[in-house]
Amino acid sequence: MSASGTKTKRSELALAALASGDEEQVLEALQRIGTHGDAKAIHPLLHAWIAHPAGEVRERITRMLHQVKAADSLNMLLEALDDQHLLPARDLVLSSIWSAGLDARDHLDRF
């Protein structure tokens, strides 16, 4: 398997681990995503944030999203605003756009 294939596989495994009920697994996945993740991780991160209403998992996801700079992050966050399953994370999505300094001026009508 190529290096990019290995990286993709690790990223997929980390995203799958976010759905785990095991907080340690989720925290390990967050570490891998922080190092190797891309904008595709945003929706799974938001789902994990919703699934963990308190604690370190929620805090780490919030910090990650408030600093997100990956290519296509803005588009993924804007998509999250329209996803009814992510409605409980709407405030996080909006604060992430602002805190990360993403240029959303062409999308002000959505806010």
Describe, in plain words, how this protein is organized in 3D.
This protein is an all-alpha fold and 111 residues long. The chain has helices at 3-17, 23-36, 42-51, 56-66, 73-82, 90-99. α1 (3-17) packs antiparallel against α2 (23-36), α3 packs antiparallel against α4 (56-66) and α5 runs antiparallel to α6 (90-99).
Fold blueprint:
Elements: H1 3-17, H2 23-36, H3 42-51, H4 56-66, H5 73-82, H6 90-99
Give a brief description:
This protein is mainly α.
Shape: globular
State the assembly state of the protein chains.
Answer: single chain
**Structure classification:** mainly alpha
Which residues form runs of ≥5 with pLDDT under 50? Answer: none
H/E series: HHHHHH
Mean pLDDT: 90
Determine the number of helices (DSSP H or I, runs of at least 4 residues): 6
Total number of beta strands: 0
Main sheet characteristics: none
Give the key terms.
single chain; 111 residues; mainly alpha; globular
